[in-house]
């Protein structure tokens, strides 16, 4: 094998290993964490705190995703959506993946412990274990409520960002957690609906398979209504102003419209659109919260 072919193969392998860290999911997780950091302070936080906190949370989230891919490699191999993963194809060795995940997690933990604070380090470790072990091994294969319970891990990032800057948990940070927590069921069940054949092949008890399409679309609609109420709480409690209120109403309006349509006239294409909207929704909602923070026009 020539040096350039070896280099190309090495590059392809590194890229495949990086994919195991689910970079796009982690990007949104880190985005929400950073917004949690910025919201916790009236002015911009010091970079010497913001940078290690961001990197530490990103590395530990990536490590959690990598461990999930490792533990689920046999299930992933049975699903069209995930069969391409290096762990599922067998091109990433078990030892190699475990080593990389532990390394990323350890560096992340050290950064948080040494440069941020112990509370954030422990909470992020608990989040990592909550997703990689509790959700992956104990909830996902056994109950259709897997993501409702396991969603607590996914909802932690803004709270982690908040504690990274302040060293304490506050009601405002818990409100941010609650927003992602109520967002998770519509986010995931929309995907589970149009990917149900995949989940059936893997034998996973996802809600569309255990309780049917109508029950799942109704659950999506009810959680979206709950999400609408929860996203209006920051305004009701006086921690967000007009700009956020208008953005939340528009974003919630679109989410509710899609959820109602989905329940009334189910189509895979609509479920796909709802899933895709859930990602834009969270991105814009948190961006609006941040913009509002810097130009607060109170709703009195
Ligand atoms: C337990 C909670 C969650 C579950 C079960 C879940 C499930 C999923 C699944 C299965 C996908 C893959 C879609 C695909 O391969 O096409 C996905 C994609 C995604 N999720 Fe979630 N998710 C959860 C929480 C979160 C959280 C907390 C965030 C961010 C704050 C997030 C952001 C994303 C993004 C950005 C994508 C798109 C990735 C891409 O396009 O490659 N998810 N989610
Ligand atoms: C800060 C920190 C340590 C965060 C860790 C929490 C974390 C990475 C949450 C992500 C949620 C996620 C990618 C769920 C995918 O579900 P799945 O595993 O069922 O999806 P899959 O079928 O694509 O593997």
Automatic annotation (TrEMBL):
The keyword NAD does not apply. It is a multi-pass membrane protein. Pathway: Porphyrin-containing compound metabolism; heme O biosynthesis; heme O from protoheme: step 1/1. PROSITE patterns: UBIA. It catalyses: heme b + (2E,6E)-farnesyl diphosphate + H2O = Fe(II)-heme o + diphosphate. GO terms for biological process: heme O biosynthetic process. It is found in: Cell membrane. Belongs to the UbiA prenyltransferase family. Protoheme IX farnesyltransferase subfamily. This is Protoheme IX farnesyltransferase. The lineage of its organism: Bacteria, Pseudomonadati, Pseudomonadota, Betaproteobacteria, Neisseriales.
